[in-house]
């Protein structure tokens, strides 16, 4: 099978003397034989390169002091144009300068050149388009002083040194490290022997720099002169050529497609040879120092520019410019030079944009644009990376193998604590499954949260189902845009997914692997696992992994399923031999070793904290140890948190405390992570971070030197992950421990960090708008930060990053006015979010804002209006304008917003009369989420949470204070018709045809009580609703509401049948149920476990002789039974012991104000007492009456927009109603009523 490399398009550019920048990165990949790959990609992915993000990345590496003018010219003029050009084509343009802004702290450890070379190599390896741009004139550049030299080479050179002073100098700066494999001599940090190199005193620092330059130049000459004689050419060249040539060699001369991937902007200063040598001229050509060194540099420069480069680049890839020298070098105020710089900028833009177009064109003709293929590839690449360093775990893998090749028809669960190595085990098992199944199985895997489409359960089910069907040739019936159809119903997806599993065959089995169930977005009940089958079809194996914490819901749910205990594999502590093997493997990969005492320190530390993540952190720390490290420095922390803080401390010293704290603070505080270019833009507007970077010299443009992030990412690469967010790939922490540690350390300035993020997502300083700042001299000025534009739309596509992140960060920043202007009182923005996400996400933005700004009337009114309009907006988001116009008509404070609604270009119907309920009245929320009518509702004692069930087969819980769905329970059963909170509100009791299920709120079914008939009556009673009673035939079966175990069976003394689905009321000690003819009732004494005889409710009453009992409730003191019937509106009171009628609560005339509302006397089956017994309430057609039990008077009469099927309340003030529709209505009767049109 042929498959091309999958690559970024980058350009490495060189300026002036020696340094490169890598520019323009975008994916150009060719995918062939896609179907085979999708079927068997686990075998193939180990041979593949990683799939890059869709990114155009520009990585310059330039000495600031050399190319200040030229750099500024391109930064100010060329870069923004190319950035915009790429953005219009769906690419991101990022500038990274590999020399600009290098801190002395970074120079101190001599790592800069290695990082630059690594970036050049990376660009070349990942590119099939333009990958190298060179801006090289007359200067050849200085040689490198290698940070590490192999011991054999070093000792050959050292033995050939004749001068004792030279030997003393080399001995001073180089030490042998036997922890390297093979051993090396290491160049020591500059500050070790010249401490003032890092001094805050500028004079001392300059003196130190001069001393280092003198000694380092002397060492370069020593190595260059002797290496040429004592070493082979393939080794000696590193000591002889300049850094410039080294990087040009790597990035251009060794580039197989340099003729189309590389370009040289060549500048000639025609009279430079006639100029008198001075410091300024030395920036452009070697002219100071020993004559022989100058001569050698010019010879090497001539060979590079006149032979090597022209020998590989065609003429059309070399753009020539000629200028004369000026007393100021390249001077933008010089007329000739100004013209040259303008031409350079124009040519640069034109050439690079052409290369971009060529790359896009090549990509469009060669790639297969298939979202499923890309999703498969991303997960296989992730799996591959996890397998590369995998060692040990043989016992765990054997258990998984036994499952894969065995006969179990249940899922296999890998579980453990955070950082225990679950994902690595799952990845290795996925790879080995191919071998375990004799290379016949379809291996399908998903690592939840690692790609843009793997956090949401809908996306996962859609892609997995489609991949399964493609494997088995059953995809012809699937619409082409099925993966992109965000409206696909979850119920339909679950059915399609579970049906697709049955396609597996004996000669083509299926192994499905889903890692990190706890990483699912909890929306749609993903972690409740209603989509996960209890049992699997033949020839199917399903491996899942999850954290054990109850807060993530998945593990408790898995334990409640029918999965056998043997199918649960807890990730054990790493055996000592595995630990040793892992460390050996890691050391070999790093080409390192440890001294025996250092190895012992590492081993003993792991014993105190035996987690793989701790081992990795400790190993990374130990890799900094050399064989000559003092024992006092070879110390490890004893916890994961302390280890992370030690890492952070080292980064702060190396890269600067302010820069690290802001970079990691923004990354941690970001709602969904940040891409590298986003983080650069955010930092470009943080003047405290910039001031720290530029404390000694102003930058050519007011931006952070991008190499800062390259270096920081390099040091954190093991602990950051690229994951999906809003359709792009962003950086975020890989482990929760890092999130918690970074949050504690860097996110104390919450409002400041969120303000920076909000300004980025709003585009506050984009499009050339200068941001004010105070320079180092205290002068107030401003500068363009060259940040990405943030329109609401890019062409026909919405800016999802802005839409999903701006409201969140404006709110947390405390920017009330801007929050309203840009987001929450901006009709265009609200509509865009409705169209691109959901009403639930829109309301979440308002809920956060309302919590932050509780007194703001505009936010409060729009929040309430949206809550009331949920159902309509779910059906059609374009109903936003008419809904808002009607609901908020007459609100003077909302006039500006309503004018925006009226100005919408989309036609809508506007009624001549206001017809909708207004926000701010008694109707607080209209909660939408069910897709079919709601059948039952119950409320917790706290008055905050309700539970509902619906004809859509789902059960949902709701927060009626905040006004949002808490959780949706799918797949618990078919056709639920009632739900109740039981066991002190810890469980949910759900009634299904012929069965009752006890469900923990985590979503797991604790027990099922089978019913013999389809309509058996049942109810709950006992202390805290701890007893379930099922009434069938002439018998009551009492069950423990916590376990579902049968407690007692009580027979009724009368030969009378209970009514099927009859009216049942319960209290702590009693239950009451009516007879099959609906005219008699009987009391069950729970303490005595005995029934009373059935008693006729209305004997001898001519008016009530044919009355049916409609509603029953037991008084709070358990002395009376309250009863309603189908003839009278009155409430009748019976003694619970004698069953005699004691009193009658007559419906008062005119019954409050209900006559004015057109109320007619109607009768209700549903009669309720509030939890405290103070109020008796019942629905009646479109009205709900609330009677005060202390005064006997009707306290409230609530007019409902539709016939009320049932109502619940615990305090007589906040009510929840259901009707024959999909909406849950929440009412607050303590509010003043606000009618339509008022």
TrEMBL record:
Coiled coil: none annotated. SUPFAM superfamilies: P-loop containing nucleoside triphosphate hydrolases, WD40 repeat-like. WD repeats lie at residues 927-968. Residues 630-748 form the NWD1/2-like winged helix-turn-helix domain. InterPro entries: AAA_16 (IPR041664), NACHT-WD_repeat (IPR052752), NWD1/2-like_WH (IPR057588), P-loop_NTPase (IPR027417), WD40/YVTN_repeat-like_dom_sf (IPR015943), WD40_repeat_CS (IPR019775), WD40_repeat_dom_sf (IPR036322), WD40_rpt (IPR001680). Keywords: Repeat, WD repeat. This is NACHT and WD repeat domain-containing protein 1.
């Amino acid at each position: 099978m042929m498959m091309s490399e999958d690559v970024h398009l980058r350009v490495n550019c060189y300026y002036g003397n020696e340094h490169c920048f890598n520019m323009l990165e975008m994916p150009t990949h060719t995918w062939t034989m896609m179907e085979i790959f999708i079927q068997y990609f686990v075998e193939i992915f180990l041979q593949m390169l990683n799939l890059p993000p869709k990114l155009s990345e520009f990585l310059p590496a330039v000495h600031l002091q050399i190319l200040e003018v030229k750099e500024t010219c391109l930064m100010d003029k060329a870069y923004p144009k190319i950035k915009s050009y790429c953005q219009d084509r769906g690419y991101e343009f990022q500038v990274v300068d590999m020399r600009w802004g290098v801190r002395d702290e970074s120079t101190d450890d001599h790592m800069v050149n290695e990082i630059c070379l690594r970036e050049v190599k990376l660009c070349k390896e990942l590119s099939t388009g333009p990958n190298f741009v060179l801006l090289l004139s007359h200067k050849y550049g200085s040689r490198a002083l290698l940070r590490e030299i192999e011991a054999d080479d070093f000792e050959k050179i050292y033995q050939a040194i004749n001068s004792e002073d030279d030997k003393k100098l080399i001995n001073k700066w180089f030490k042998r490290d036997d922890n390297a494999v093979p051993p090396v001599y290491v160049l020591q940090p500059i500050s070790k022997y010249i401490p003032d190199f890092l001094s805050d005193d500028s004079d001392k620092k300059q003196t130190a720099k001069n001393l280092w330059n003198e000694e380092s130049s002397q060492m370069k000459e020593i190595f260059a002169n002797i290496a040429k004689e004592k070493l082979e050419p393939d080794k000696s060249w590193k000591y002889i050529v300049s850094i410039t040539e080294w990087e040009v060699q790597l990035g251009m001369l060794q580039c197989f497609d340099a003729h189309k991937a590389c370009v040289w902007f060549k500048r000639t200063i025609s009279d430079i040879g006639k100029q008198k040598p001075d410091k300024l001229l030395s920036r452009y050509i070697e002219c100071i120092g020993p004559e022989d060194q100058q001569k050698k540099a010019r010879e090497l420069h001539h060979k590079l520019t006149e032979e090597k480069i022209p020998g590989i680049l065609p003429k059309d890839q070399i753009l020539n410019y000629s200028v004369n020298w000026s007393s100021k070098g390249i001077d933008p105020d010089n007329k000739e030079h100004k013209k040259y710089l303008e031409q350079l900028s124009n040519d640069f833009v034109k050439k690079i944009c052409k290369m971009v177009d060529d790359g896009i064109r090549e990509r469009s003709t060669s790639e297969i644009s298939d979202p499923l293929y890309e999703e498969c590839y991303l997960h296989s690449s992730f799996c591959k990376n996890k397998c590369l360093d995998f060692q040990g775990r043989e016992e765990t893998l054997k258990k998984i193998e036994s499952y894969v090749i065995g006969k179990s028809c249940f899922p296999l669960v890998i579980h453990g604590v955070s950082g225990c190595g679950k994902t690595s085990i799952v990845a290795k098992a996925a790879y080995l499954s191919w071998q375990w199944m004799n290379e016949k199985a379809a291996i399908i895997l998903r690592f939840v949260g690692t790609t843009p489409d793997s956090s949401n359960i809908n996306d996962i089910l859609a892609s997995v189902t489609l991949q399964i069907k493609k494997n088995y040739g059953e995809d012809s019936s699937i619409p082409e845009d099925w993966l992109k159809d965000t409206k696909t119903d979850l119920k339909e997806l679950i059915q399609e997914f579970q049906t697709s599993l049955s396609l597996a065959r004996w000669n083509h089995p299926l192994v499905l692997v889903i890692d990190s169930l706890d990483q699912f977005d909890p929306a749609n009940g993903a972690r409740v696992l209603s989509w996960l089958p209890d049992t699997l079809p033949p020839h199917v194996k399903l491996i899942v992994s999850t954290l054990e914490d109850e807060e993530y819901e998945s593990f408790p749910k898995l334990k409640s399923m029918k999965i056998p205990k043997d199918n649960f594999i807890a990730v054990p502590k790493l055996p000592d031999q595995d630990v040793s093997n892992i460390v050996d493997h890691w050391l070999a990969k790093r080409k390192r070793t440890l001294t025996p005492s250092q190895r012992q320190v590492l081993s003993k530390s792991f014993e105190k904290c035996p987690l793989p993540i701790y081992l990795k952190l400790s190993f990374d720390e130990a890799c900094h140890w050399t064989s000559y490290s003092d024992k006092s420095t070879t110390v490890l922390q004893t916890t994961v948190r302390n280890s992370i803080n030690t890492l952070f401390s080292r980064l702060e010293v190396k890269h600067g405390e302010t820069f690290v704290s802001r970079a990691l603070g923004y990354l941690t505080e970001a709602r969904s992570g940040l891409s590298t270019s986003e983080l650069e833009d955010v930092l470009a507007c943080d003047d405290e971070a910039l001031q720290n970077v530029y404390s000694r010299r102003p930058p050519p443009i007011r931006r952070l030197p991008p190499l800062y992030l390259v270096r920081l990412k390099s040091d954190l690469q093991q602990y950051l992950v690229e994951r999906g967010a809003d359709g792009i790939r962003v950086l975020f922490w890989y482990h929760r421990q890092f999130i918690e540690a970074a949050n504690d350390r860097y996110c104390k300035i919450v409002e400041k960090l969120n303000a920076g993020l909000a300004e980025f997502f709003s585009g506050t300083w984009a499009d050339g708008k200068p941001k004010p700042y105070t320079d180092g001299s205290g002068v107030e000025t401003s500068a363009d930060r060259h940040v990405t534009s943030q329109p609401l739309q890019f062409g026909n596509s919405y800016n999802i990053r802005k839409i999903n992140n701006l409201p969140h960060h404006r709110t947390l920043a405390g920017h009330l006015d801007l929050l309203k202007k840009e987001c929450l009182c901006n009709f265009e923005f609200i509509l865009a979010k409705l169209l691109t996400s959901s009403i639930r996400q829109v309301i979440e933005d308002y809920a956060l804002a309302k919590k932050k700004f509780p007194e703001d009337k505009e936010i409060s009114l729009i929040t309430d209006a949206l809550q009331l309009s949920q159902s309509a907006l779910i059906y059609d988001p374009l109903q936003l304008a008419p809904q808002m116009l009607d609901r908020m008509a007459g609100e003077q404070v909302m006039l500006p917003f309503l004018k925006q609604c009226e100005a919408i270009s989309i036609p809508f119907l506007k009624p001549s009369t206001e017809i909708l309920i207004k926000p701010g009245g008694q109707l607080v929320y209209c909660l939408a989420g069910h897709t079919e009518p709601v059948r039952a509702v119950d409320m917790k004692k706290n008055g905050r949470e309700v539970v509902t069930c619906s004809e859509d087969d789902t059960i949902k819980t709701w927060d009626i204070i905040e006004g949002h769905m808490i959780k949706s329970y799918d797949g618990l059963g078919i056709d639920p018709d009632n739900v109740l909170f039981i066991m002190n509100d810890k469980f949910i009791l759900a009634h299904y045809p012929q069965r009752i299920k006890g469900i923990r709120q985590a979503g797991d079914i604790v027990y099922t009580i089978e019913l013999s008939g389809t309509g058996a009556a049942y109810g709950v009673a006992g202390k805290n609703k701890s007893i379930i009673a099922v009434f069938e035939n002439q018998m009551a079966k009492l069950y423990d509401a916590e376990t579902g175990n049968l407690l007692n069976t009580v027979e009724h003394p009368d030969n009378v049948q209970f009514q099927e689905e009859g009216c049942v009321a319960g209290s702590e000690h009693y239950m009451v149920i009516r007879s099959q003819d609906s005219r008699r009732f009987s009391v069950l004494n729970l303490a005595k476990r005995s029934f009373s005889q059935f008693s006729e409710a209305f004997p001898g009453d001519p008016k009530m002789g044919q009355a049916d009992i409609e509603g029953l409730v037991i008084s709070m003191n358990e002395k009376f039974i309250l009863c309603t019937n189908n003839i009278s509106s009155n409430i009748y009171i019976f003694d619970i012991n004698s069953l005699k009628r004691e009193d009658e609560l007559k419906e008062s005339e005119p019954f409050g104000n209900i006559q004015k509302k057109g109320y007619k006397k109607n009768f209700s089956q549903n009669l309720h007492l509030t939890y405290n017994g103070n109020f008796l309430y019942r629905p009646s057609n479109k009205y709900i009456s609330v009677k005060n039990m202390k005064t006997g008077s009707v306290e409230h009469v609530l007019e409902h927009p539709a016939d009320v099927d049932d109502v619940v309340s615990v305090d007589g003030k906040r009510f929840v109603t259901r009707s024959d529709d999909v909406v849950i209505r929440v009412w607050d009767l303590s509010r003043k009523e606000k009618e339509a049109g008022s």
